[in-house]
Amino acid sequence: MSRSSWRLRACGTAALTALSVGAACALTPPAVAATAVYSEDFSDGLGTFTAAGSVSTGTYGARMSGSLLSDPALTSAPIDLTGRSEVTVSYTRATSGLDLGETFTAAYSVDGGSFTSLESARTATGAASFRLPASVEGHDVRLRFSLDANSFAETLTVDDVLVQAEDDGGPTDPPGSLPPVSDVTAPGPYAVTVDESAGPDGDGWLVYPADAGRDGVNHPVLVWGPGAGSDPAAYEDMLRQWASHGFVVYSEVSSSSGDYMVDALDWLEDQNAATSSPLHQDLDLAEVAFGGHSRGSIGTFDVADDPRLETTIHVAGGSFDGNGPGSLRNPALFIGGDDDFATPNVERDYTNTDVPVWFNILNGTDHIAATRNGQHIITAWLRWRLADEEFRRTQDFLSAGCTFCGLGEVRHKNW
Q1: How would you class 282 by CB atoms within 10 Å of its CB: exposed for 0-12, middle for 13-18, buried for 19 or more?
Q2: Which residues contact 326 (CB under 8 A, 6 or more apart)?
């Protein structure tokens, strides 16, 4: 058993609840990361990249296919490094089928000049990271990925492109993004307002940053479904925690049908448009998650194919027939407990899931405690998947020493 796992068993559920207010048993805070200047995961297309040749995008990233006629390439728009230093470029890449003499190349250019290679090889897989020279600081940088191959079956896949830098007096974070945090187990930078009579029928909870829209921020959205026999009040500390990190959270009594979630998102779209709403033009409706605990998870499966979603979250709520994952279209977070009767169903859903998924079976956790014990995992997941904090991919989730790997048995696939 890892040291952090032992500490969480020793502290118990009550201490896990107290993590959000800095209890003595709190997790060691993640290290502070450099500011994310630019990121792109290609899940919504090319973003600010332009393509030449055969290029496709999806949850896998951007995939270039070889051709006898023209070599495929991806080139970013200029990335402004004014006021930035210690610039790092990272990304994941994977080649397939390249023959001897065929290569891929990753390169950068400064202020529209010629491209300088970061790496050029025939085979590669996994993450790469490069510190750019000081000569790029204060200038515009473009990134380019290209493939020199002859067959359509020969490919280069690129994903999770991230440019990070230290701040030398420029903006501290990209316009419209959430303020960065160093510790997801602590409350975020926002005071929180709770409206207990919100929603389409006035019987839901709307939990949101009290000064929504501050500094031009557009706030991502989470619609949360409670477990059967409970209501939003049973999750109040967790809803407040997520809202303090800048997310607008809506919750009402759940059902196994997720139609209420769709109705709630429709209502939030109306609130964003209404001049009388406290959230007028403050929502980022391109960054939306549905999620829930137990029955709330089952309802989430029911509507997981809503095209407005970026991710779904499933806590202690596997589908009864194993068919729930058939509706998933986006990366998903699964959380279970080693003492939870629902975990076998969640494990079956994990096996049946074809989209990228990350799954943690938490130590010392039963069905009721699963959300509370996993709330900080959810915070980090939301900051990664909805707030585009790409460094969390490796730091918090997809590495052997990830922030949450010591809390239980971790599995992931399809990344």
Answers
A1: buried
A2: 352
Q: Are 63 and 52 within 8 A, CB to CB? A: no
- Tell me the C-alpha distance between 380 and 317, whole Å: 20
Q: pLDDT digits over 102-152, tens only?
A: 999 999 999 888 999 999 999 999 999 999 998 899 899 999 999 999 999
* Pairing assessment for the beta strands 219-225 and 84-96 based on DSSP bridges: unpaired
Residue 127 tokens, joined? 């993450």
Could you give the CA distance from residue 39 to residue 36 in angstroms, rounded to a whole number? Answer: 7
Pairing of strands 248-251, 204-209: antiparallel
Q: Are strands 357-366 and 332-339 parallel, antiparallel or unpaired?
A: parallel
Report pLDDT digits (tens) over 60-114: 999 999 998 889 999 999 998 888 889 999 999 999 999 999 999 999 999 888 9
Report DSSP state, residue 12: H
d(CA 328, CA 248): 22
Degrees to nearest 5, angle at CA 408 with 405 and 412: 60
Distance CA 371, CA 398 (A): 21
In the DSSP assignment, the letter for residue 322 is S
Burial grade of 371 (CB within 10 A; 0-12, 13-18, 19 or more) = buried
Calpha distance 234→297 (Å, rounded) = 16
Closest CA to 59 of 208, 210, 160: 160
Strands 204-209 and 116-121, by their bridges, are unpaired
Query: What distance in Å separates the CA atoms of residue 211 and residue 225, rounded to the nearest whole number?
Result: 25
Confidence label for 34 from pLDDT (cuts 50, 70 and 90): low
Around Cβ 345, how many Cβ atoms within 10 Å? Answer: 21
